[in-house]
Amino acid sequence: MIDVETGEDLTHLYSLRSRKQDEAYRKKLEQERYKSANAKRWVASYHDPIRAVIKDLSLIEAGAIVKLLPYLRFKSDGQLISGGKPLKQADIQRIIGKSRRATNTILGRLEALGIIKVVQRGRSNEYYISAEFHTMGDTKEGASFTKLYQVKTNEIIADLGLSEIGLLYKILPFFHFSEYYLCANPDEENPEIIEHLGRDQLAKEIGHDRDTVTASIAKLQRKGAILSTKSGRTVRYLVHPDVMFRQTIETDWTQSVRKMFAQHRADRK
């Protein structure tokens, strides 16, 4: 048997295993490929520091962070870079789609909250994302974090306003590690006692009114980032596992959730 991606002959490995073992080994190989393929495409977003500032951030400010995260690079100490060069204020202005004055106000707020650091080089500033909030290429040991995948996220936010993008940022610390629901206890290992966040509870957690959250969620649902499920009068929110992820490998539930999103998208057409 030949691995179609690497060209490696795996026949000798499969000949030594039963069919059941073969299937388990195949899944392991797929999981390793998944991990390798995505290792360079996500940003670690740390729950505790984000929660600490979440109510102080406006949705526009939070959206600006999401727009800037794709400019993080491996081993760059958090510096924002494009085309091998540090981002300047004018670059950020273009990226977030705001005027110079509005951009300076947003950057000043993010700096005051400790999310970005500004370093003056000559006559211009260079910008860094604080490793307390986000890292790329390595992670802080023992810290709870959500992986924000860049490819799917960039696809989703391409034609959204900063406010809707900002909601995507604010739900990061409420993303359950294995079930993909938004909840108050995202590290809980027993799925039966997950404290799901409905619209009202979510609005309270992130510091916005119910109508604002409703409007932003509706837009994120249309873009395929969030899926709402109902049981009686209870509404629960799932996040697409290609947008956010917390495990090292995919599970059967990952595939099921992805299919749910695909089916929902097909039904909307």
Describe this structure in words.
By secondary structure, this protein is of the alpha+beta class. It contains eleven helices and ten strands. The chain has helices spanning 11-14, 19-38, 47-53, 59-68, 89-96, 100-112, 150-157, 162-170, 199-206, 210-222, 252-268, and strands at 42-46, 81-82, 85-86, 116-121, 124-129, 134-135, 145-149, 226-231, 234-239, 244-245. A hairpin with a 2-residue loop joins strand 4 and strand 5 (124-129). Helix 4 (59-68) packs across helix 8, helix 5 (89-96) crosses helix 6 (100-112) and helix 8 (162-170) crosses helix 10. The longest helix is centred in the first third of the chain and has 20 residues, at 19-38. It is globular, with a radius of gyration of 20 Å.
List the helices and strands and how they pair.
Elements: H1 11-14, H2 19-38, E1 42-46, H3 47-53, H4 59-68, E2 81-82, E3 85-86, H5 89-96, H6 100-112, E4 116-121, E5 124-129, E6 134-135, E7 145-149, H7 150-157, H8 162-170, H9 199-206, H10 210-222, E8 226-231, E9 234-239, E10 244-245, H11 252-268
Antiparallel strand pairs: 1-6, 1-7, 2-3, 4-5, 7-10, 8-9
Helix pairs in contact: 4-6, 4-8, 5-6, 8-10, 9-10
